[in-house]
Amino acid sequence: MGAYRLAVMDGDGIGPEVIASVRTLLTALNDMEPGxxxxxxxxxxxxxxxxxxxxxxxxxxxxxxxxxDGWILGPLTTHQYAGPAMPNISAVLRKRFELFANIRPxxxxxxxxxxxxxxxxxxxxxxxxxxxxxxNLLNGTGExxxxxxxxxxxxxxxxxxxxxxxxxxxDLARRRSGHVTLVHKANVLRLGCGLFLxxxxxxxxxxxxxxxxxxxxDAFAMHLVMxxxxxxxxxxxxxFGDVLxxxxxxxxxxLGLAPGLNAGHERAMAQAVHGSAPDIxxxxxxxxxxxxxxxxxxxxxxxxxHADPNASNLGARLQTAVETVLATGxxxxxxxxxxxxxxxxxxxxxGALG
Length: 354
Ligand code: ATP
Fold this sequence. Notes:
Blueprint: E1 2-9, H1 15-32, E2 36-42, H2 46-53, H3 59-66, E3 70-73, H4 89-96, E4 101-107, E5 120-126, E6 143-147, E7 150-153, H5 159-174, E8 179-184, H6 192-204, E9 211-216, H7 217-226, E10 233-236, H8 238-252, E11 261-263, E12 268-270, H9 289-305, H10 309-328, H11 342-352
Parallel strand pairs: 1-2, 1-3, 3-12, 5-10, 8-9, 8-10
Antiparallel strand pairs: 4-5, 4-11, 6-7, 11-12
The protein binds adenosine-5'-triphosphate (ATP).
């Protein structure tokens, strides 16, 4: 029997609300599948952990994470983090544990009004370097202020990171339509994006059965809005991937429906695309679906890496339950045009699990 310890970290803003839904689903899944044992391990992080113990990422949490098989992290209000006792948890975990590919699918759902139907794309975003200043140097940050009116932002692009990202993208495409789109700005950022593009193309040579194309990120943003159904797996650098995954979420009904998985070779962390949504935090109306679908992705990852069909099946059942609830249209949180609460939506998904 597959037994998994899953770290569960609330995060900030709407984090405790949507992660409470994930806990409810974990309990329901555990009860319904005797062939699997999912043990949630609650670990403090974020502003609440800082208030209690003086650090957003306590050493005890870091140590406990090492003992878990998979992790679930809520969103973070990182703009309120400042100083060495308030590290950006996502950044530290992604970098330290080499969760190098941020896999962010955006799929149309029946019954959800959006610009298009039948969109099905996945952004595979580099997760450990790029322009994100808090993770691209061993010490210090990649943003420097030599004078009060000047800032230099350093972007890091390494062949190793591009290569492992590209392999993740091509492996994923092999399980989908076999089409990979590389997104870059190599016409201007010639060295950095040039290295990204050359490395991805070299990896493509190992996947001769794949269809590969590439676009400059600015033009691609237009193509993705105008003809999203022409794309499948989108492999790109950190900042571009962050922007394009929010754009993709906008194509299918919004951030409330957009899940994500931070994946490495050894570990994976479920984390929705959205942020901590301070504008709606504490009201019990956040859409939990992005986090619940992120859990489904983690279960699928556990199933694949542990050759455990029970875990993959549970992930698929969870995905189907979400689709069923959305298709019937009776329960809608405010972001989807309804008035249901986070708890209503969670209960409906538990009910649809059958
Ligand atoms: P970050 O930079 O941390 O990703 P952000 O600036 O992109 O954050 P979000 O916190 O993701 O911003 O919020 C963007 C908008 O989407 C807000 O209006 C927010 O209320 C809405 N939103 C985000 N997540 C959800 C959700 N789960 N349910 C409903 N609305 C959401």
